[in-house]
Design a protein that fits this description.
Length: about 375
């Protein structure tokens, strides 16, 4: 079975969606019945090169896609390539297919969240309208849906009831076992890894750290991730100047990321909205305490073994910051290792790879 994949999210400095695809493909390429062709705007990252070096065909448009306007020309490239590849399945990992694709193939999408609709203020009204319109069109031409959590599935079907009639499966994000010992230790710093934006609660993180230092907290703060918002960049500079002991590393490699997890005191992830939350599982693999907001998704994926601060039901940023800072002082430094191991096991590549393998085979009319 030939599967063409839109791998654009993995092409250059991938974050959540790109890493979701990378981890699934690492497992799926092991199955002899599947042949993959990856489509992308560019092939710059270590992740997409991983597959090219192992003989997986990669086709690129050679034009970076930065904004929504560039997506249409990119999908014109995808449409042309699909006509040449003639796949059995086309997998759109990033939810939206803004144009109608023609061909004798099944279409599968992964839906990661509904935040452009449920959290409009972090995406803007224009993108929210575009997202709703594009997903409505996409669902009309979709044969299979993968969800990254039951929470995402419930929210999607509440907003788009038509999705209920499309074959679907919940395929949680894969977390791979660590491939080496990173020398786990506590080097006296809090850590955040993720996109630098308000939806991820980075304003809570930075303002919270400032308050933590004001209350005589002594740990340093290390922050890594792509800078996406100008006001967050300004806030970072202000907190660095005022407090010191705030190190910003920008985007980091996978190797560096694991080194940071291994040596932190505690991982901070004050996100306001998550479809899953891969970084918390990465921190859990390194047996680190984790502080998150009290979002429902974390009960689903981590069974309540994390430290939480109050987020839901409160709009006042000062309340959220105060609750967050209190956890920075009072978090449980002794993790429940048994609970951590049980949670991580659910997201093993073997288990989730088999779920997706079976789902594809059951919904492709005996192509194999």
């Amino acid at each position: 079975m030939k599967i063409a994949v839109d791998a654009r999210t993995m092409g250059s400095r991938p974050s959540g969606v790109g890493m979701y695809l990378f981890d699934f493909l690492k497992q799926l390429v092991k199955y002899d019945e599947f042949e993959f062709v990856l489509l992308s705007d560019v092939a710059d990252s270590e992740y997409i090169k991983y597959f090219a070096q192992r003989g997986v065909e990669v086709r690129t448009s050679n034009e970076h896609v930065y904004k929504s306007a560039g997506v249409y020309s990119y999908f014109a490239f995808v449409k042309k390539e699909l006509a040449d590849i003639k796949p059995d399945v086309f997998w759109e990992v990033n939810s939206l297919i803004p144009i109608k694709l023609k061909g004798d193939f099944k279409t599968m999408i992964t839906v990661h969240d509904m935040f452009p609709i449920t959290h409009v203020r972090y995406f803007g009204r224009v993108y929210s309208i575009y997202f709703r319109h594009s997903l409505t069109k996409t669902l009309k031409n979709t044969d299979m849906i993968l969800y990254n959590s039951e929470q995402t599935k419930l929210t999607t079907e509440a907003i788009f009831p038509e999705a209920k009639s499309i074959p679907n499966e919940t395929a949680y994000i894969i977390t791979n076992p660590l491939d080496k010992d990173y020398g786990n230790s506590d080097d006296g710093y809090f850590l955040y890894i993720g996109n630098m934006e308000k939806r991820k609660g980075v304003d809570i993180l930075l303002n919270g750290y400032r308050e933590y230092r004001y209350r005589k907290g002594t740990k340093k703060l290390v922050v890594a991730g792509k800078m996406l918002e100008d006001d967050i960049e300004r806030l970072l500079y202000e907190v660095q100047q005022e407090c010191g002991d705030v190190e910003y590393l920008d985007y980091v490699t996978d190797e560096k990321k694991h080194e940071l997890y291994a040596h932190c005191s505690c991982f901070l992830f004050p996100s306001r909205a998550e479809g899953f939350g891969m970084p918390i599982l990465e921190a859990m693999k390194h047996k680190k305490p984790v502080i998150v907001a009290n979002l429902d998704i974390y009960n689903e994926i981590a069974d309540g073994c994390l430290n939480t601060f109050e987020m839901q039901g409160f709009n006042k940023i000062n309340f959220q910051i105060d609750s967050f800072v209190q956890q920075m002082f009072d978090y449980n430094k002794e993790i429940d290792e048994e609970a951590y191991n049980a949670a991580i096991e659910r997201y093993s590549p073997e288990r989730l790879g088999e779920i997706v393998r079976k789902f594809i085979e059951e919904n492709t009319d005996g192509i194999l």
